Structure formats: structure tokens, C-alpha cells
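Section 5.1 Outputs to date
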Amino acid sequence: MTVIGYLSGTFDLFHVGHLNIIKQARTNCDHLVVGVHESGAWKGKPTFIPFDERIEIVRSVKFVDRAVKSTPHDTEIWHEIRYNKLFVGSDYFGSERFKRYEEFFMDKGVSVVYFPYTQTTSSSQIRALVNGTIEHGFD
């Protein structure tokens, strides 16, 4: 059986944390589909890089088999893709959203897999640096 994995994100200001989770996801499935959110508005964050450019970046990562426009909820796109594993960063573990996802997938043979959050670099850190709300870069 081919194991299909799905991961979604905004992937704005693409950085090593994004690459890490994509790499980890790909090692845990046979075919990786990555959904790219149209904007960061659902998180209340502005998006700096246009959607078409972000999906092209994701599509170009060698670990990604297919990049698609994501749906507002990862459960919605499951009806189209029928993935076996949903990948997400550990920062979402225990969140209401992912508790609902775990419950939704309980009888569908889909496991939710949490990967360690990359501590060294994040989009929030990059935004703060760009916006001038922190004074120094990364060590």
C-alpha cells in the first residue's frame, strides 16, 4: 500500500524550519502532497510573498511530490486526496484545531504525526526582524 502524506502551511518567507518539516514528512510516507495556504490571514498575519511564488517554491523542493492550494481545514482536502498521514509541527499539538482533526480521522485510518518545531528559525522571528521589532538577526 502506498502511504500518502499531507502537510499544509503558508510557507511565507521560506526558511529551514519549513524545509525540515517537509523533509521529515517525506521520510514518513511514499508520496507527499503539500498544501499551500492562499494567505496568512487565517492566522492574523500578513503574507509577504505572493501565493503563486510560494507554491512554486514548495513545488520545487525535491521532497515534495505534489503541491496544491490548501483548503481552510485539512479535513476538507482529505476528501480529494485521501491521505493516510497528516503532518504538522509540534507547536500545534493539543490545539483545539488538531484535537478536532484527530477526532475526525479516528475512524478513517489517518494518523496525525507531529514533528518537532524548529527552534532556531521561524517566520515570526523573520517578520520581527523585517519589521524592526527586534534589533539583531540570527546567531
